Amino acid sequence: MSSRYEIRLSGSGGQGLILLGIILGETASIYENKNAVQSQSYGPEARGGMSKSDVIISDEEIDYPKAYNVDFLLALTQQSFDRYTREVKKGGIVLYDSTLVHSPREGDYRLIGLPLNDTAIKDIGKSMVINIVSLGAIVKISNIVTIENTEKALLKRVPKGTEELNKKAFYAGVNLAK
Amino acid sequence: MSSRYEIRLSGSGGQGLILLGIILGETASIYENKNAVQSQSYGPEARGGMSKSDVIISDEEIDYPKAYNVDFLLALTQQSFDRYTREVKKGGIVLYDSTLVHSPREGDYRLIGLPLNDTAIKDIGKSMVINIVSLGAIVKISNIVTIENTEKALLKRVPKGTEELNKKAFYAGVNLAK
What predicted TM-score, i.e. pTM, was given to this entire model? Predict the structure, then answer.
């Protein structure tokens, strides 16, 4: 059985999905001794304002760095939900924002709706930390890396002076997913 | 003839190579209507402190997102120079930091040494902008995207309040490569 795990983070530009992917990749590789590839591909969709960031985590070397059989999809807009759920594998997980995605279509995947954006706004006071709230929820739900190691990678990546804010956002996401 | 152009940015963690890759990818895709893939793969080398960021730019859709025939290598440490020059294609370009890389081995590529780090320290006062100085040099040397469009993408990506500093670093790199 392959240990390959594919995570796709999708939404709109400005939601910080690249940073979210980088933190997941660094957690897996630097703190958990796994291999990881993090990538963004930009095509016509990027010019339309969509954003997508992929992370592949594996115990083995990663030969093919593109996601094609997604284990875990984060969808922060309706457009990204509609576009990417079709690439989720049977039995995979789809985590969506329950306010920003109005029509979460069911399929051969496990659907989880959480108020990620509302939590960023109400609990933290900044909708721009939706990516870090999402990070907490993804790690809690997927168990692909530990919460402790993710916190380490997170604190190393965020700008100085924003550590406490980001830590609070991260654990708000963890608690939301409990 | 393929329009595919592969750029590899290599050095050590903390030199900001991921951000450099993201800005190049966004310049090509959002401002120049091309396709781009930007990726970092993390393996044992990442745990050893090496850092690598790849950008592939193409007029066509990018099927294979991994660099395998590098057109342009940036090497900001001796270790990364030694490791990655072997993946540069015949006739490709190797831009290295002339202070940080002590033994630039010659090969079937065009070698260009520039004091990128010294410029970041002396002209800008911050070695952490070595990535943005390098961005200016890469764009000037490769012509893969325009200087004007890169400036737009750069200013959209850097933290508020640091625009002037980064613009200065960028043009210091452009001038260095003239």
Answer: 0.93
